[in-house]
């Protein structure tokens, strides 16, 4: 399943927590606001769901190339932004950059549970200008999504295991696409940032 976000507007009714359910376009949204916002018109993000296969088929592949990259995005840092910028650059301004965000369960296949929950990480990814679509990635491996989307390019990180990257190359070759491996930025990784935060708290 693919998750995409759009903006919806409504009037705050004076409660600190306001829930608005979208009848036709998704599961709704819950926002937290100060009491003094009562009566103000605000824009909120509303979650929408699309069938991942239909999204892949809806893109005009004669005019638009697709790149797929994927992230945990627990802490957003310069390495993420560089990867996303590079992904978009590979398909050009008219191309489509689809970003996969790992679900909590997918992350925990190989790492500890993220600090930020899945919904928060999806919203962070959607706010970054280089990303045209943000999708849920239900496994640590990108290949289930890749097989449904059929991107022209899969962005991989040099931090991933070589055998996993080789498997990605085999799958992408069958789909008529290719893998681009970008350098890992160990000095600005989420793990390093978390370790530095823990060190400074001692």
Overview of the molecule:
With 202 residues, the chain is of the alpha/beta class. The protein has 2 domains: 2-50, no CATH class; 59-193, Rossmann fold (3-Layer(aba) Sandwich). The protein is 33% helix and 28% strand. It contains 7 helices and 9 strands. The protein has helices at residues 52-58, 78-91, 104-107, 118-126, 143-149, 162-174, 190-201; strands at 2-11, 17-20, 29-32, 41-50, 66-71, 96-102, 133-137, 153-157, 178-182. Strands 7-6-5-8-9 form a 5-stranded parallel beta sheet, sandwiched between helices. It has a two-stranded antiparallel ribbon with strand order 1-4. β8 (153-157), α6 and β9 form a beta-alpha-beta unit. The chain is globular and about 50 Å long.
Q: Key features?
A:
alpha/beta; 5-stranded parallel beta sheet; 9 strands; single chain; disordered N terminus; two-stranded antiparallel ribbon; Rossmann fold; 202 residues
Residues in β-strands, percent: 25-35%
- The H-and-E topology, N to C, reads as EEEEHEHEHHEHEHEH
Tell me the number of strands. Answer: 9
Query: In DSSP terms, counting alpha (H) and pi (I) runs of 4 or more, how many helices?
Result: 7
Q: Strand count, sense and closure of the main sheet?
A: 5 strands, parallel
- Label the overall shape: globular
CATH fold-level assignment of the largest domain: Rossmann fold
Look at the structure and give the CATH class of the largest domain: Alpha Beta
Average of the residue pLDDT scores: 77
> What low-confidence regions span 5 or more consecutive residues with pLDDT below 50?
1-30
| Alpha carbon gap, first and last residue | 42 Å
- The helix fraction, in percent, is 25-40%
Computed structural class: alpha/beta
């Amino acid at each position: 399943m693919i998750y995409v976000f759009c903006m919806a507007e409504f009037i705050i009714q004076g409660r600190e927590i306001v829930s608005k359910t979208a009848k036709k376009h998704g599961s709704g949204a819950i926002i937290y606001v100060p009491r003094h916002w009562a009566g103000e018109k605000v824009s909120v993000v509303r979650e929408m769901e699309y069938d991942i296969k239909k999204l892949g088929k809806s893109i005009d592949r004669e005019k638009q190339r697709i790149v797929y990259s994927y992230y945990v995005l627990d802490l957003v840092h310069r390495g993420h932004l560089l990867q996303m910028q590079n992904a978009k650059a590979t398909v050009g301004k008219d191309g489509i950059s689809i970003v996969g965000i790992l679900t909590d369960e997918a992350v925990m296949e190989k790492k500890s549970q993220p600090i930020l929950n899945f919904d928060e990480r999806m919203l962070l990814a959607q706010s970054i200008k280089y990303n045209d679509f943000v999708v849920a990635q239900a496994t640590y491996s990108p290949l289930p999504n890749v097989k449904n989307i059929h991107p022209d390019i899969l962005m991989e990180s040099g931090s991933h295991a070589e055998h996993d990257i080789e498997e990605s190359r085999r799958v992408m070759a069958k789909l008529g696409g290719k893998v681009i491996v970008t350098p890992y930025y160990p000095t600005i990784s989420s793990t390093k940032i978390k370790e530095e935060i823990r060190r400074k708290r001692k």
